[in-house]
Specification:
alpha/beta; 10 helices
Length: 223
């Protein structure tokens, strides 16, 4: 009897690593449909084509995303598609943040192929996988946690607008990129400011920097 056909998307801007992931996944199943994307725009295009996706393997750093914004956008826009972050940055604070933003797992790029396959299978069966030595219960400080909760209330389109504000784009440019009117962009910006509890675009961009990988306040270490 044939295995069920799984549909996976591998999103990473390094062709060599996409190939390694493809090899890892292909070795698990007799029948699997794997799509590859080298930029966030390609990921969105693949997912918008429709059809159920069983798993998205997402690199945190690729063209078109900043920090955790790609993960936030995918979880908001395609809530039925589980996302496993595959990253070279295995800082425990980064892993905790990925899980807080709705990832179903976190696979360090240094993981061996057998462990990687076991992690992917765990998630496909509805479970969650993170490196066993990472304490997910250790929390961020209260200020960072509060901002993260506010960021999580943004709609997919608001996440995209915030990403573009962070890149320094003007309302006119954002409207062109998203194929909407300037009035719509202004409405999104107003909603973003309100949700983040800030008064200006500049403050919103500073808040957005908190979702940059490595920008989360770390507990002070003595010495």
């Amino acid at each position: 009897m044939n295995d069920p056909l799984y549909r996976l998307v591998i999103a990473d801007d390094h062709p060599l690593f996409r190939g390694a992931l493809r090899e890892a996944v292909t070795g698990l199943f007799e029948h699997v449909d794997i799509s590859e994307a080298g930029s966030f725009e390609e990921v969105s295009r693949l997912l918008d084509q429709g059809g159920e996706v069983d798993l998205i393997l997402l690199d945190l750093t690729m063209p078109g995303v900043r920090g955790f914004s790609g993960l936030m956008y995918l979880r908001a826009q395609y809530p039925s598609a589980p996302v496993v972050v595959v990253s070279g940055n295995d800082d425990p604070a980064v892993i905790r943040r990925c899980m807080d933003f709705g990832a179903s797992g976190f696979i360090p790029k240094t993981l061996g192929i057998d462990d990687m396959r076991a992690a992917i299978m765990r998630v496909l069966k509805g479970g969650i996988w993170t490196p066993p030595d990472v304490d997910l219960a250790a929390g961020a400080d209260a200020e960072a946690a509060a901002m993260m909760a506010r960021l999580a209330t943004l709609t997919p389109q608001q996440v995209r607008v915030l990403m573009m504000l962070s890149e320094g784009l003007l309302n006119k440019q954002i409207a062109y990129e998203l194929s909407v009117s300037e009035a719509t962009v202004k409405a999104h910006v107003s909603a973003i400011l309100q949700k983040l509890g800030v008064d200006s675009r500049t403050q919103a961009v500073i808040a957005a920097a908190k979702i940059e990988v490595g920008q989360w306040p770390q507990p002070a270490i003595g010495g």
